[in-house]
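Reopening this ticket.

The earlier resolution said the output was attached, but the attachment link was broken on my side. Pasting everything inline this time so it's all in one place.
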Amino acid sequence: MSDEDGADADRREYEFRKVLEELEGHRGTGTQLVSIYVPPDMQISDVVDHVRQEQSEASNIKSKDTRTNVRDALASIDARLKYYDNPPENGLVFFSGAVDTGGGQTQMVTEVLENPPQPVQSFRYHCDSDFLLEPLEEMFTDSGLYGLVVLDRREATVGWLKGKRIEAIKNATSLVPGKQRKGGQSAQRFHRLRLEAIDKFYKEVAEMADELFVPHRHDLDGVLVGGPSPTKDEFLDGDYLHHEIADKVIGKFDVSYTDDSGLYELVKKAEAALSDAELMEDKRYMDRFFKELHGEKLATYGFEATRENLIMGSVETLLLSEDIRTDVLIHTCPEGHETFEYVDRGKQGEVATCEQCGESIDQTEREDVIDHLIEIAEQRGTETVFISSDFERGEQLLNAFGGVAGLLRYSTGV
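Inline output:
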């Protein structure tokens, strides 16, 4: 995956997470919140038929308020389905319903999520007092694409690890003779034939792996190889794999089985390596940040300083914590001066007067801080990277630097 594609994927994931957090806070006064998951291979016309059938059956709901709210939610989804000829590549998810806003009041909310992080697996219709969010939440915990290879000299299986789902795709068995030669064969000739058969089988396994992995090489997060010690070492040391796939190998592990169950054993043995691989790139960025911070000073941190450097075009890479939950309040006074205030999401600001002229603030806009900074970054050609807080320096970015930092192209003194 290219840096640009990775940044786009991180941005989409952040946007999805933000919507999910909002939906998690919604409750219905009855079973009136509708969730619909549409897989990519489903006809939109079939979804419309199902929605209209549910609208018809809603007439049987005893509570008048719930009946009205369910019908309104389904009507809202029906109206949005008209914009689609076919589902996007990963499907669609609809959420609609009258959510409780307190004091006996409700507000109609409708969200449409296109192309979630992973394909929607099956059609689901759900009507309850909460939105059905678990399938989407699982997609975020199930991120990552890894190629799997298990082999010995008798059998091999290749497949995928997609998040937490393991899929065996291809299996092959060899014609490698056992170690006992048949009568009449010299030991030297038998040994040569056996080595030729092993070499041929390794080539067959590599061909299986290359056919499966090479088309997806830019999306691969890594390749895992398992088997008995001599076999997996011979296979990797023999340069059988395509060079781009060989470069993706992040670990080799001893496993006892080489069928489908071997793939599961391989993933279990590789848990630590998988965890490290996910954080490796984040660690490299943060190591560089701290090196620049204490060395050449080509680093900036905090919302205000980083924003100012972004506007100047001096930020090469914008570093944002995945766990930022902050807004920026843009205060404007009658003279047109802008004052920026960095506050926790949903909290009110404290700035009442302009920092430049002392006039009272007469207008305030609220923006998500990540959206605000990324918009500036995109205008200046700045790369954006989201940093996990699941390691020490990632946690420091969030807690010590407000979740916002940058690597500079040149020193600015800001």
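Reporter confirms the inline version is readable. The chain has three domains: 3-141, 145-269, 279-408. The chain is about 40% helix and 25% strand.
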